[in-house]
TrEMBL record:
Name of this protein: N-acetyltransferase
Record key words, sorted: Acyltransferase, Transferase
Ranges where the N-acetyltransferase domain occurs: 1-164
Provenance organism: Roseibium polysiphoniae
CDD domains, A to Z: NAT_SF
InterPro entries on file: Acyl_CoA_acyltransferase, GNAT_dom
Any single Pfam family the record assigns to this protein: Acetyltransf_1
Taxon lineage: Bacteria, Pseudomonadati, Pseudomonadota, Alphaproteobacteria, Hyphomicrobiales
Length: 172
């Protein structure tokens, strides 16, 4: 597998992965499929704001997953906190792509000076929860029945990783 920065030519693959997750997983809490224009806007907003988007390719050169950092909340008090997303095609899950992406996103978040990295995971997604625990994330809360998809209430598990040992935030 090859991990690299996403480029605009990857957007059709990212769209396929995203829309597959919308149709089949409880991980993305929407039923609305994105268009190529939607994914392009998302990609441009992420990269222009300094948030990376990475892809993983299989041996044939096909994009099988992607991951990105993004803002947690827009208020300046959250400026040292980052949230991430990782999505993998069904046939590639459980084969290491998610770990490659998560490891890289943690490395980049540390390098960009973030203090905390958050994951918001569907409460039934045992694989994602286990992956995050493997990389040092701690489960810091569960919000029951906060979302709905496929006619079911969904719980949200919040997971957190402290990225550095700063006792106090930097002075502005």
């Amino acid at each position: 597998m090859l991990l690299r920065h996403a480029v605009p030519e990857d957007l059709p693959g990212l769209l396929d992965i995203h829309n597959n997750a919308v149709k089949t997983l409880k991980a993305i809490w929407t039923d609305k499929l994105d268009t190529l224009e939607d994914r392009t806007t998302w990609f441009e907003e992420r990269t222009q704001a300094g948030y990376p988007v990475f892809v993983v390719e299989n041996e044939a050169g096909d994009v099988i997953g992607f991951g990105s950092l993004g803002p947690y909340r827009p208020k300046e008090g959250y400026r040292l906190t980052v949230e991430h997303s990782i999505y993998i095609l069904p046939q590639a899950r459980g084969k290491g792509a998610g770990g490659l992406l998560l490891e890289k996103l943690i490395e980049v978040a540390r390098g960009q000076g973030y203090h905390v990295m958050l994951a918001a995971v569907d409460g039934e997604n045992a694989g994602s929860i286990a992956l995050h625990l493997k990389f040092g994330f701690k489960s810091v809360g569960r919000i029951p029945q906060i979302g709905v998809k496929f006619g079911e209430w969904l719980d949200l598990v919040l997971m957190s990783l402290v990225l550095d040992d700063r006792v106090r935030p930097p002075q502005d």
